[in-house]
Amino acid sequence: MINLLYVIITCLIAVIIVNYRRQLSNTPPGPYPWPVIGNLRLLRRLCKKFGGQHHAFLQLTKEYNSDVINLYLGNSNVIVVNGYDAIQKILRDENYDARPWNEFTKIRNMGLRKGITMTDGPEWKEMRAWLVRSLKNLGFGGEEMSNRIKDELEIILEKLRSQNAQVIQMKPIIAPAVINVIWSLATGSRIVEESRLRYFLNLMERRAKAFDIAGGILSIFPWIRHIAPETSGFKLLTTINKEFKEFLMETIDEHKKNYAKGKEIDLIDMFLAEMYYGKGPAAGFTEDQLLMILIDLFIAGLQTTAVTLDFLFLFMTVHQDVQCKLQKELDSIISKTSLPQLSDRFRLPFTEAVMTESQRLRLVVPIIGPRRAVNNSTLNGYKIPKNSCILMNIYSIHTDSNNFDNPMCFKPERYLKNNAFIPDKKLIFFGGGHRRCPGEIVAKSAIFLIFSGVMRHFQLLPGDNDIPDLEPQPGLTISPKPYHVLLVERTN
């Protein structure tokens, strides 16, 4: 009994000391951290109560009346930034371009400080610049890329026609098309074999469910992987990594075997050219680098694009009036016998507004980061210690009533003025600064062409006359709860 009392008193003293030091050092406000676990239990309770980390962070922002708050996840110091002004300061400042390198990040990157997502420094800048140049040389954002997307759209429409007047789910039909757009860009061909395609999609979904944006239990308590490899998720993550690597290395090895100098037709070929005849391994062009670049492309591209489209089809199913107005506009620009063109986008202001409003309310990655402070700095008058982990809550911007009137309402008309689409400058869909998503153009093009193409040819009605639930499932990326639509081919 005496020992228990001693432990309790010691813990309370530790909490008081930590918070006293916080006040003296002028660090951002936040809840009292408990020894060992920090604010982990509180964060989990708020996530469960409000429906995800983005809601939990917003609640803490209101509670402490500050756009910048300080949390301790275990012994890790995490700065959560909310609000447009504060987030823009992070995005525009090179001091926050770095990434944390903890145990969880190591697992995510298979122990390799490579790729374009979870690394920083001169090599990251070199690889990112190479990727942007290479994508441009491959027709990124041009007619060739548009044709690849439209090829996949035709396959989607064919599948949908075969299920006309049936109750279906949209994502299983859309996701294979998205993965093949990225796959053809990277490898020069589609994944034709259905079983192989489904395996890769399943692998990506398993991975998405296994990871957590704040770093997960493994970054907070890295030692737990030794004593509880299964319950901590360590075994699952390493298994998924092994499968992921084997799947991609099969394609990389095939490209190495068949590579011919001067005949590069895809991203892998272009990397091999740089590795063999360009700047070479000394500049970072290694097989491990290629593997991680591919992993980053598929992780960033598949889940976000496919789920963004899934949310769009969900909103159209729920808001039949918006769907009707959208299709009236599409009918006036796109004929029944043709597919949408990227050039049509500027003549479809309401369609653009619908896509924008859906992403505002249901941004697939509502919390972006993590970032790492390279040096000691200040933000909104608070001290940000060197190497602090920083998360940015984009949801706090998109649902702020100071930025958007009646922000929780789905209202595409808010972006229209004199029948012209006027984008809001406070929308952040693809990050910003030096870490702005390099795949933005292909993602936006795929979303527009697939969404407008499907809605031009099909009406989506609630399946079994049940209105789907618009509340998303929380996670690394948010996603719609499983829903069904009654698919009806349009005759006009």
From TrEMBL:
What biological processes does GO assign it?
Answer: organic acid metabolic process; xenobiotic metabolic process
TM regions (residue ranges): 6-22
The keyword Oxidoreductase appears for this protein: yes
Binding, heme: 437
Q: Name one GO molecular function term.
A: iron ion binding
Chief subcellular location? endoplasmic reticulum
Q: Which cofactor does it need?
A: heme
Q: InterPro entries, from UniProt?
A: Cyt_P450 (IPR001128), Cyt_P450_CS (IPR017972), Cyt_P450_E_grp-I (IPR002401), Cyt_P450_sf (IPR036396), Cytochrome_P450_fam2 (IPR050182)
The entry's localization annotation reads: Endoplasmic reticulum membrane; Microsome membrane
Q: Which keywords fit this entry according to its UniProt record? A: Endoplasmic reticulum, Heme, Iron, Membrane, Metal-binding, Microsome, Monooxygenase, Oxidoreductase, Transmembrane, Transmembrane helix
How does the protein's chain sit in the membrane according to the entry? Peripheral membrane protein
Query: GO terms for CC?
Result: endoplasmic reticulum membrane
PANTHER family for the chain: CYTOCHROME P450 15A1, CYTOCHROME P450 508A4-RELATED
Q: Which family does it belong to?
A: Belongs to the cytochrome P450 family.
- Function (record text): May be involved in the metabolism of insect hormones and in the breakdown of synthetic insecticides.
The protein depicted here goes by the name Cytochrome P450
Please name the source species: Microctonus hyperodae
